Amino acid sequence: xxxxxxxxxxxxxxxxxxxxxxxxxxxxxxxxxxxxxxxxxxxxxxxxxxxxxxxxxxxxxxxxxxxxxxxxxxxxxxxxxxxxxxxxxxxxxxxxxxxxxxxxxxxxxxxxxxxxxxxxxxxxxxxxxxxxxxxxxxxxxxxxxxxxxxxxxxxxxxxxxxxxxxxxxxxxxxxxxxxxxxxxxxxxxxxxxxxxxxxxxxxxxxxxxxxxxxxxxxxxxxxxxxxxxxxxxxxxxxxxxxxxxxxxxxxxxxxxxxxxxxxxxxxxxxxxxxxxxxxxxxxxxxxxxxxxxxxxxxxx
Length: 300
Description:
Organism: Lactiplantibacillus mudanjiangensis
CATH class of the largest domain: Alpha Beta
Order of helices and strands: HHHEEHEHEEHEEHEHEEEH
Largest sheet: 9 strands, mixed
Distance between the termini: 49 Å
Structural class: alpha/beta
Shape: globular
Domain HTH lysR-type: 1-58
Number of helices: 9
Keywords: DNA-binding, Transcription, Transcription regulation
Radius of gyration: 22 Å
Strand content: 15-25%
Number of strands: 11
Pfam families: HTH_1
Oligomer: single chain
CATH superfamily of the largest domain: Periplasmic binding protein-like II
GO molecular function, one term: DNA binding
Number of domains: 3
CATH topology of the largest domain: D-Maltodextrin-Binding Protein, domain 2
């Protein structure tokens, strides 16, 4: 028995389905089922009744659930208190950063509010991809990092994330510097007629879906090429190697030296902010509470 199995057990309790619990953990329903089967075998307990529509707790499962919750809460408390001792009472917040999720927008704010939050310290950590997850870096929240700066909308928040808005990003078109589109100061939808353009697939971002709808309505002959999921560095390389266009956002304009980004004429923007898991733990929850309070009292 390990902590991951217990965390998975609680997610299945919450969502009543291996599949839905898997979506929250960014793994397959089959992987969740295997974890639960192994847990039941190791403990010699029957925790769930499987039904065609999901799962239900057995009497043993109902008895087991509150103890698991208490155990994990106690473990989190132990980790938090131990970390405070190790860092001279500073509460460390791990802020994930990467090419696609730069921490700069938050760190500018942190410079201003840090003197008012002296019991916290920010530690930047390099985000690693979870290759088993369709959301990759987002899946590392609550694992290698407490927070990341990222985009969000209702689709994102329906998953396992909460967000505190910091600002808005604008859409642009990334193209190779020798592409004729690179000579424009702004790009309209009509400028993209007959072009191939890379975008994330539908269902990942409401705002990307909206821009896709606007594109297809304005230029039906545009050829949209879906990426396998959220962007990674390979997406930018593909744009360069195939000399095609790519939908991009404000913070990505300098990722690839052979690409230039031209603003896209659209009123659609994307919110970005501090992302956390829905259950981030007391330390991170306290940090977010204090950060919001300070910015509410002193927005400048």
